[in-house]
Amino acid sequence: MHEYISLLRHNKDYRYLWLGNVVSQLGDWFNLIAAAELITELSDTGVAISYLFLARFLPLFLFSPLAGVLADRYNRRTLMVIADVARAVVVLGFLIVGITGQVWLFYILTVMQFALSALFTPARSAVVAMVVDRKELVTANALDSFTWSTMLALGAFLGGVVAAVFGAETAFVLDALTFVLSAWFISRVVLKKWEAEGESQGGWLDFVDGFRYLWGRPYLLIFSLIKATGSLVWGAVNVLEIGFADHIFPLTMFPLAAALRIEDGGTASLGIIYVVSGLGTGLGPLVMRRILGSTLPRLLMGAAIGMVLVSVGIWGLASAPTFGLFLVATFVRTVGSGTLWVFSAVLLQIVVPDRYRGRVFAFEFAMLTLAQSISTLLAGLLQDSPQWGLQPTALVFSGLGGLFSIWWIFFYGWSRRKPMTDFENLTTG
Q: Which domains does the chain have, with CATH numbers?
């Protein structure tokens, strides 16, 4: 833990970037809990919940190519500040949905919010590598993952309490305020002077140029798809765990819930699930990094192990007879997803040169959100189907994760037979 504190203490720019991440992530989980509550009030079906996540994921896929080009052509700090301020305004629009009850407006505002997130995320991923030394990249990404998971746990808990006690509207107002505070922190970051190399071809041609760069380096292309394979599996869990919380393990089924006068057992159970998810995604990368180290082959090995744990964890969700075992399976799954996320990010930050970094991260982000969109839609449809239901659907995605695990283990074994110079020379050809 000392190295994480040391990074925050001596690197002022990363500290401001991290603080902005802390408050915005906290608000995001307030938003998700409130949105889940609102959508279940308006239309309590698996497909409706799938549409919630599709409205969050598809804009990230559609707008990421343009966002990657912008991140490689314009000041990344300015782009992030603009995105944060605009998201604060959009989130306040959810107050209108609570008054009118219009589902279509809810989805439109969600699309707008995450279109702006598509602008923010590739820029931030590229900025991390600009303000942190290469030897500290694993530390910075592990700290980001730990922050995400901590805010998941804390934000889900507080968001559930706020939504239950004060209503979803209060949670949306607090989310808007966190975006404003995040914009202020990011505005304090000082970036080294940076200019795009080469001539801009404009819009999609710039993105195509970035994809051509990846296509000519198959290793990098494969690295950039690691998160997509994971999200094709774990994206379904976003939908399924709401169903498990509401219909199989609502907190109202336990005697303690009656003593505490908890009425919305599904929301309470979902909050607990998110708390455990936060612990898993936070601790996973820290422990795996200590065990495996941070060389390029070991980072790839960690991503493969993460995929295995995701598959095993989802199988546990489908098979758990009690809520306690369900939480154990959730912990295993999120240890895997957190490890896969951090290790794959560091791989790209190490080997991709700065002039392509925004577009490469945009491509990675587009692919993972496309995979999540497909996964969540399929999960919602299967969950609502009388022939399937929650547990069989979870088993399907567990099996899919098993297939991807075999692929990544095979790829890791094959890559070990390649000379180390192949990894070290990825940026040049």
A: 12-187+204-423 (1.20.1250.20)
